[in-house]
Design brief:
The chain has 464 residues and is an alpha/beta fold. The protein contains 14 helices and 18 strands. It has helices at 6-10, 15-19, 45-57, 75-78, 91-98, 100-123, 142-157, 170-176, 196-209, 273-279, 328-341, 386-402, 426-446, 455-461; strands at 34-41, 63-66, 82-84, 135-139, 166-168, 184-188, 191-193, 213-215, 220-224, 227-230, 233-242, 259-268, 286-289, 295-299, 305-309, 350-360, 367-371, 376-380. Helix 3 (45-57) packs parallel to helix 12. The chain is globular and about 60 Å long. It binds flavin-adenine dinucleotide (FAD).
Length: 464
Amino acid sequence: MYRMSPTDRYRPLSFWHDTVPGTLSPTNPLRADAEADVAIVGAGFTGLWTAYYLAKQQPSLRIVVCEREIAGFGASGRNGGWCSALFPASLAKLARMAGRDAAIAMQRAMQATVDEVGAVAAAEGIDCHWAKGGTVMLARSGVQLERAKSEVAEAREFGFGNDDLRLLSADEAGALAAASAVVGGTYTPHCAAIHPARLARGLAEAVRRAGVSIFEGTAAREIQPGRVVTSSGTVRAQYVVRATEGYTPGLPGLRRALAPVYSLMIATEPLPDALWDQIGLAGRPTFGDLRHLIIYGQRTADGRFAFGGRGAPYHLGSAVRPSYDRVPGVFAALRRTLVELFPVLDGVQVTHRWGGPIGIARDWCASVGLDRQTGIGWAGGYVGDGVSTTNLAGRTLADLITGMDSEIVRLPWVGHRSPQWEPEPLRWLGVRYTQNALARIDEAAEAGRSRPLDAGLAEFFGRH
Ligand SMILES: Cc1cc2nc3c(=O)[nH]c(=O)nc-3n(C[C@H](O)[C@H](O)[C@H](O)COP(=O)(O)OP(=O)(O)OC[C@H]3O[C@@H](n4cnc5c(N)ncnc54)[C@H](O)[C@@H]3O)c2cc1C
């Protein structure tokens, strides 16, 4: 009987895993107890960036990363590839939490982070198909246009100018992305399209070159002060960093820390240049529209659409299972939406379908921190904005652990403690209710009816 090799096993995870160079087998599993200065659990972007900056800052530190599967197995290898300056909490929300200046500093730090990711990728020779073409968000109804205007108005209130976010006329938006029913939009230059698995796998290599041990195929069973207990031994370390994002609820004591919600994607076959001439997206800006239940896309370096959206169900008890990555109804809806946006795509083949869990904090605010008493650090709750935010998290954790008094350790998300999620079944009811309500608001907008986000939902949704 044909048995899948470990390499084959990880290829179908996503279009990105299918097309990343190199082998995808777990290497160097932990075989016995070990000692380190810093032990990191999870080799996604959070864990890898933390290891990277720690190793660069203090090459003598003994750093290990324990990863249950392979580096880049989780959301980091599977995402939409928007390396953006988006942060899950809005400027207004950050200002309420920590003041106007702190909110502005956070946004500026996010903008700088986009370039930092590009600079490290270039310096380490990681060909992640980097294209800093910005983001065009299309308004395809009067309601969405109002939303575009209010997003630009909010940016202006906080002192961000046209160079950061500008309103587009219908013609300008259509010239960037010739989608149907476009009445306007917004454009920001602060985003690069990337091939996420190439970045994750390349970063893992860079981290290994810097002297870090990555133990793949090594599942942490428990994270405790001073130690990580794994299936094949215990790693003792002064500092332990939890970098498990959507998988966090599977660890003892952390069931209610983050809610894993699934984001799903499709990729088309490569399209001929003649079709791209009709569609646009020259320079590979990432794109979406201004509906509430987020959709996101990019033109890949090999000329496909990679396109995704939320809307897959949240599962009772914050369950995460491989089967939840694939929901035929959601894939069909994504394809319909993509063809609605670009009718010339009717008949184009979808070659890949996949998904993965994102982590949502109860107050929809990502956080990073280090508890000095226990030595346990964490970062997460990025919702769908982790590609660049994880880099800022990694630099921040490195500074916190080495005691570096930098500007980034004073940003408002540092040390922020989100409340716990409600126990089940309340959590399930709340998340499902929100998902359905957002879908209804979008449907009303499509039918030309404005249905405002009520205050409770807005707070839950975190946009305002
Ligand atoms: C479909 C999809 C599209 C997205 N699109 C975008 C986008 O375009 N832009 C953007 O900014 N963000 C996007 N995101 C979100 C972004 O990918 C994540 O926020 C980010 O990758 C989180 O990185 P991480 O390292 O914290 O988590 P992950 O990449 O999920 O890594 C966690 C790692 O921990 C490992 N792990 C878990 N439990 C254990 C354990 N017990 N022991 C050992 N290892 C363990 C996992 O195997 C995994 O490798 C998207 C996410 C998804 C799923």
